[in-house]
Design brief:
GO terms for molecular function: hydrolase activity. There is one protein chain. By secondary structure, this protein is α+β, with helices and mostly antiparallel strands. It is built from 14 helices and twelve strands. It has helices at residues 3-30, 32-44, 88-101, 132-136, 150-154, 158-164, 167-176, 191-205, 209-221, 232-235, 253-260, 266-276, 281-286, 349-374; strands at residues 51-58, 61-68, 82-83, 124-125, 128-129, 263-264, 291-292, 298-299, 304-307, 313-320, 325-331, 336-342. An eight-stranded antiparallel β-sheet has the order 2-1-12-11-10-9-8-7, sandwiched between helices. The chain has a two-stranded antiparallel sheet with strand order 3-6. It has a two-stranded antiparallel ribbon with strand order 4-5. Helix 3 runs parallel beside helix 8 (191-205). The longest helix is centred in the N-terminal third of the chain and has 28 residues, at 3-30.
């Protein structure tokens, strides 16, 4: 065969192969739905009694999928109620942002200014007092919890302890606590600190924290399913999950208060993500980075922050109750939000949800890019 003809055929074959590969790549890129569903199906891996739900907000579009079965045999849907755990903290941070706008609080002010009485001389160390910024970034020096110790948890006394622990008990402990580090110096995750923020907000507004969340957030976002303490009937509707070993776990929302007491559903959290992607001034304040390390990881108003592949800020928070795990990520510049929740709280459940969220975001970016090139 003539060499030039052979070269021509080779070039044509190479172009055809490249076109075929590009076509396959484009097909994969636009297959956002099937890729996302595959991740969720693989996650539950046919485990009986395990369910997983996801909501993805992409500008005006939303994608919501549910897989698996709950312990009662039902399939989850947009109205299935879950404990949110620490996702509650982002609501608390947003109320703080609103309070700043309204001149009720200041980030750098001594928090004792907002507490009644002069019984908190212990809330400072090395002449450094605690501020709201310290509480919002878990650098106050306050301990993780008051009601229970690690020994209580290991010996199975956790629920007995928290069921008897009251607001009065909390403030008694607050008067006696010794700070573990100078405020502003070290990171120490503190539910004690987050609940203190809730009590401070109640003090400055003279309203229950539950009402503040309703007035400042859920009435604006349209979240009908996001609530704190529920009636006995409503409590029976909250999904009961397991600890990862198949052991059914009790609910603990009411005790966790501003630190983790909210329950909600996919429909409501979808509305919350849309609110977090809005241009409301309090949202912008709550996304402000209050502290950042040399690695680029930081913290906002109870959000953790990092940067995506485009060097744009991503905000995230994980939530865990005794039997539920969740993940929430917000990409403000991309106008994207991702929420995943499952009725299992195993040792590695939350890290798995984070991995899924990252993959779903990549699938969505590839889909958006392919859609623009096809247009």
């Amino acid at each position: 065969m003539n060499r030039s003809i052979t070269q021509t055929i080779s070039i044509i074959l190479a172009i055809s192969l490249m076109a075929a590969l590009a076509s396959c790549k484009n097909h994969d890129a636009t297959n956002f739905e099937s890729n996302t569903k595959h991740e969720l199906i693989e996650f539950i891996d046919g485990n009986v009694g395990q369910a997983v739900s996801i909501s993805v907000v992409n500008a005006e579009n939303t994608y919501q999928y549910h897989f698996g079965t709950l312990s009662n045999g039902d399939t989850p849907n947009n109205q299935t109620i879950y404990e949110l755990g620490s996702l509650t903290k982002t609501y608390t941070g947003l109320v703080v942002a609103e309070a700043i706008l309204e001149g009720k609080v200041e980030l750098d002010k001594d928090i004792r200014h907002y507490l009644k009485g002069n019984e908190y001389k212990n809330l400072e160390l090395s002449n450094q007092y605690i501020t709201l910024q310290h509480l919002l970034t878990h650098t106050s020096g306050l301990p993780r919890d008051f009601a229970v110790s690690r020994e209580d948890i290991e010996q199975g006394r956790y629920f007995e302890k928290i069921s008897k622990y009251s607001t009065d008990d909390y403030f008694d402990d607050l008067k006696k606590v010794k700070l573990g580090s100078t405020p502003g110096e070290d990171y120490l995750y503190s539910s004690v600190g987050t609940n203190l923020v809730g009590y401070i907000l109640e003090s400055v507004y003279q309203k229950p924290f539950e009402l503040l969340v309703s007035e400042k957030i859920t009435s604006k976002s349209g979240e009908r399913g996001t609530k704190f303490r529920r009636t006995n009937f409503e409590v029976s509707e909250v999904t009961v999950g397991t600890d990862g070993n198949g052991n059914q776990m009790p609910l603990a929302s009411a005790y966790w208060f501003a630190s983790g007491g909210l329950t909600s559903d996919v429909d409501s959290v979808t509305r919350y993500m849309q609110h977090q992607l809005s241009s409301e001034p309090e949202v912008a304040i709550s996304h402000q980075i209050l502290g950042e390390s040399w690695t680029g990881h930081g913290s906002a108003f109870y959000w953790y922050t990092t940067k995506d592949d485009s060097n744009e800020i991503m905000l995230y928070q994980s939530g865990g109750s005794m039997g539920t795990s969740s993940w929430l990520a917000i990409y403000p510049s991309k106008n994207v939000g991702i929420f995943i929740v499952t009725n299992v709280a195993g040792d590695n459940t939350q890290p798995k949800l984070e991995v899924i969220s990252d993959k779903v975001f990549d699938y969505l970016m590839a889909y958006n890019k392919a859609s623009k090139s096809d247009a």
